[in-house]
Amino acid sequence: MEIEELKQVLTTQQELYRFLSNIITLGPKKELLDHFRVVYSELLKEEADDDNLVKGIITIQKALIEKNLASCEAVLNREYTRLFIGPGKPPVSPYPSIYISDEPKPKLMDESTIEVRKQYLDNNIVMANMNSVPDDFLGAELEYIYYLTVKSLESIEKSESEELGALLQKQKSFIKNHLMTWIAKFVQNLLDSTTEDFFRGFALLLIGLVESHLLILQESAEVYSSAH
């Protein structure tokens, strides 16, 4: 992939990672919905085929189109609370340890959580609420990939090919060795637990983005790591 094409792809990806991270962390706030509806309006004309990323964007757009976003926000935040917060045990956990643990009663803080924290610290990232929310909270993991993608774009702007190669390798390693081990189960759980098109679109966009990003990284990380 040529550098300009990679730049365009990373720019789109970092925007989508930030959107997904904000939604799972903050809930479907009106300003997030409004921004998404404006930025991706043209994709309503596209044919999704089997592309989950495009299908996810279209599904979200159809859930928002011609809607009063204030009313939409209220409805979607009720569903967000039901899905991820409770009361009681929520049907969808945004923590990977629930999906990858072999324990009968998985713990939120386990070895995988500590490994994720190490990766954050290696990049001088410390979660603001580190002691109250596990480091492998989905919103934090998506924000971490967003951060690495932003730094990759900065490396392209500065023509720092060695730094770019290292950043792409970090993204590839994190997605392949961690995120991909559980994200499909999370997505299926979410699809099974909601009838709201917005959250169904969220699930499709998430899996489509992660899978397409990994494919690009498997090609580009090698190219730019061996370019020096």
Detailed description of the structure:
By secondary structure, the chain is mainly α. It has helices at 3-26, 30-39, 52-64, 69-84, 97-100, 111-122, 138-157, 161-177, 183-193, 197-225. It contains ten helices and no strands. The longest helix has 29 residues, at 197-225.
In short:
The chain is mainly α and 228 residues long. The chain has helices at residues 3-26, 30-39, 52-64, 69-84, 97-100, 111-122, 138-157, 161-177, 183-193, 197-225.
Write the layout of secondary structure elements.
Layout: H1 3-26, H2 30-39, H3 52-64, H4 69-84, H5 97-100, H6 111-122, H7 138-157, H8 161-177, H9 183-193, H10 197-225
The biggest beta sheet reads: none
**CA-atom Rg in angstroms:** 18 Å
Number of contiguous helices: 10
Q: Low-confidence runs (pLDDT<50, min 5 residues)? A: none
Q: Tell me the helix content.
A: 55-70%
| Order of helical and strand elements | HHHHHHHHHH
Taken from the alpha-carbon principal axes, the silhouette is globular
**Quaternary:** single chain
Structural class: mainly alpha
List how many beta strands DSSP finds.
Answer: 0
In round numbers, the mean pLDDT is 86
